Amino acid sequence: MQNTVEEKLELEHHAARLFMRWYERNTGKKIRHIWHNQPIRPDVSCVFEGERLDLEIAHLYGSEAEAMSILGRNLTDKTRDFLRNLEKEPDHRLLKALNRILDNKSEKCYQTKRVWLVIRNAHPSWTRLDIKALEHHISVPYHHPFEKIWIVGDMEGKSGIVRLYP
Predict the structure, then answer these.
(1) Range of the domain at 23
(2) In what order do the strands lie in the sheet with 148-152?
């Protein structure tokens, strides 16, 4: 198994490529050449309309325990119990998890001109349609550094993207 830094980079690059592919398909505007950045900048940069565009990448799992399960980590009995209890909760977990990401990312500051937030839904029970249905309930913080906020609807990028902001 690769180390967590390599895995994180791979997940971010894959999410960026999926997003860029859908963005190009939907708009006809080209986004090219991704590269990874140092921590003071967003995760990934690319060229969009002849200029640098930075992408901050996040993954929507639901909870840390669910992330461990989805990523194939060894789970303790306690974590397995936690996941079983989560399955009993109503569907508001998607909205809660998404709003938590938006709150956390809104507090970041980047040394860049333009940055978009791209969230990839990694939870197998949630779909782009579930996210779209919650669109008017999602709480984008008033102050945040992002020009646009997008969601890739599923881990493999088969269902497309949803723009959350503006």
Answers:
(1) 2-62+94-165
(2) 31-36, 44-48, 51-60, 115-121, 148-152, 161-165
Instruction: Compute the distance between CA of residue 44 and CA of residue 89 in angstroms, rounded to an integer.
Output: 34
d(CA 50, CA 69): 40
Label residue 82 by pLDDT band (50, 70, 90). Answer: low
CB 63, CB 125: distance < 8 Å: no
Residue 134 resides in a domain = yes
Query: What are the structure tokens assigned to 22, written together?
Result: 């859908």
In the three-class reduction of DSSP (H, G, I as helix; E, B as strand; rest coil), residue 117 is classed as strand
Domain assignment present for residue 153? The answer is: yes
Distance CA 42, CA 29 (A): 21
25 neighbors 83 (Cβ within 8 angstroms): no
Q: For all residues of the chain together, what is the average pLDDT?
A: 86
Tens of pLDDT, residue by residue over 66-81, are: 777 666 777 677 766 6
Number of domains in the chain: 1
In the chain, % of residues over pLDDT 70 = 84
